[in-house]
Write a structure and sequence with these properties.
Length: 471
């Protein structure tokens, strides 16, 4: 089963043994960060340091000055990893060790951008800004993210990309000295606290037929029980219990509809889904336009369109119609994996034909605000290696699209809740549910013991590969 591990450039730069150590695990690919958010990361095996503090969101390569000249929203550079191009240096070392390199691009998660441009971020129903969450409905944000996707994804030596946070970001955020856990928030409450009321979103609600102040008041009313001790919170009413309620994706949305009413909940979903689809399609198209035809474009995703965060909510049928596949969060128990992989079951084999040249060319622009997102008859996907002869310029032709990638992402860092010791069994279960590849988070953060367990699991998976026809 094809397996990739996530990695930061600082895990490799300055450590001559890093690339060969990773290759020895039995992985085929490294998904290497090229644009990333702020973090404090452990480097347990590096010969020169143990902690790297990335103080702000930044690109880990030299950005193109011409692309960003005169623009208010632009990527920041970094100074915590040596050299002018940490991504490039790490990518070369990994490729020399026989590993395929793909870029790891974080998009709508950027606290520095929010601090410098407060008008560009999500604002909740109470007026509180979320500096870490650029509002993807705003044209200037979408333009920035699409251009960042194209530049950060298509780096020298990379054969594909994985786009994280390509959609709405919301309340949930690992923040310094976080003190937001005093009132637990279930899925419905997380959604309501993530609905945006910036000026662009407010205008969008009004254009769809409901004044923003009415939407805001409804969201505040729905959240009120969450803050009142002894009263049921959103989604905790009778009939929304375990198995049907806040813990399941369908239950979360059912709770939102109960709290807001189906009509108002539908209005919000129309606006937000339209904004997410517009960004996702535009980002994928921009990467394809900048890349070779065989370049793979995957999105970190969640099958519930209303969910926010690193694994942005998508419509499974829609995302597999324009991207080459998805990376899905699969840590947890068997039921959690089935919940996330189930909506993609049976969809990945829907290949088709698309114009040669790699890019999906929509017949009409996708509109934000609930309008339909129109696409051409072609289906975007990775061209099969057996598609046929080259195409002469100016001659209409098509190539066959191969089946989409459904990658199951497992945390393999025990200290972060991962379970490397059960990776082989968990991967087999994911394969039975339709997963075609594995992703391991995170090879640079894992202890020696965790990496040894990963190596053992990958050898077991390789020995049993004939038993898992989905792999």
């Amino acid at each position: 089963m094809r397996t990739a591990a996530f990695l930061y450039p600082w895990d490799v730069v300055g450590d001559p043994a890093a690339a060969d150590r990773l290759a020895g695990l039995g992985i085929q690919q490294v998904t290497l960060a090229s644009a990333y958010h702020s973090t404090r990361a452990l480097t347990p095996r590096h010969p020169r340091h143990r902690i790297v503090t990335a103080r702000h969101a930044a690109v880990l390569y030299p950005p193109d000055p011409a692309r960003w000249a005169g623009r208010a929203l632009r990527p920041a550079t970094q100074d915590w990893t040596a050299g002018p191009d940490p991504f490039g240096a790490a990518a070369r070392a990994l490729a020399d060790a026989g590993l395929e390199v793909h870029t790891w691009v974080v998009l709508a998660h950027n606290s520095r951008l929010g601090a410098e441009h407060p008008a560009a971020v999500v604002r909740n129903a109470y007026g509180d800004p979320y500096p870490w969450a650029p509002c993807i409905a705003r044209p200037e944000v979408r333009e920035y993210l699409v251009d960042l996707a194209a530049e950060a994804a298509v780096r020298p030596g990379a054969l594909g990309t994985e786009l994280e946070s390509c959609g709405w970001y919301g309340l949930a955020h690992l923040h310094a000295h976080d003190k937001t856990g005093g009132v637990p928030l279930n899925g419905a409450a997380q959604y309501l606290m993530s609905v945006c009321f910036c000026t662009v979103c407010a205008d969008g609600y009004a254009r769809l037929g409901v004044p923003a102040q009415e939407v805001r008041a409804a969201v505040v009313r729905a959240l009120e029980p969450q803050w009142s001790a002894g009263r049921a919170g959103p989604g905790e009413r009778e009939g929304l219990g375990d198995g049907e309620g806040p813990g399941s994706r369908e239950g979360e949305w059912a709770a939102v509809e109960e709290l807001l009413g189906a009509e108002l909940a539908g209005l919000l979903r129309s606006w937000r889904d339209g904004a997410a689809r517009t960004l996702q399609r535009a980002a994928v198209r921009a990467v394809r336009d900048a890349a070779a035809d065989s370049f793979r474009v995957l999105l970190h995703a969640d099958p519930a369109a209303h969910r926010c965060g690193a694994n942005a909510g998508v419509d499974p049928a829609d995302v597999l119609a324009h991207a080459d596949g998805v990376v899905l969060p699969c840590s947890g128990d068997a039921a959690a994996r089935a919940d996330v992989l189930g909506p993609f079951a049976g969809r990945r084999g829907r290949g088709g034909d698309r114009p040669a040249g790699g890019a999906d060319r929509p017949a009409g622009g996708a509109a934000v605000g609930g309008a339909s997102v129109t696409s051409g008859a072609s289906v975007t996907g990775r061209a099969s290696e057996t598609a046929g002869a080259s195409v002469t310029a100016g001659v209409s032709a098509t190539v066959r699209v191969s089946a989409s990638t459904v990658a199951a992402n497992f945390t393999v860092v025990s200290g972060m809740g991962g379970s490397p010791g059960t990776l082989a069994a968990d991967a087999a279960h994911a394969a039975s549910l339709g997963a075609t590849e594995l992703r391991l988070y995170h090879a640079g953060l894992a202890s020696d013991r965790d990496l040894a367990a990963v190596g053992d699991a990958l050898r077991e998976i390789g020995d049993n590969s004939g038993k898992h026809t989905a792999c």
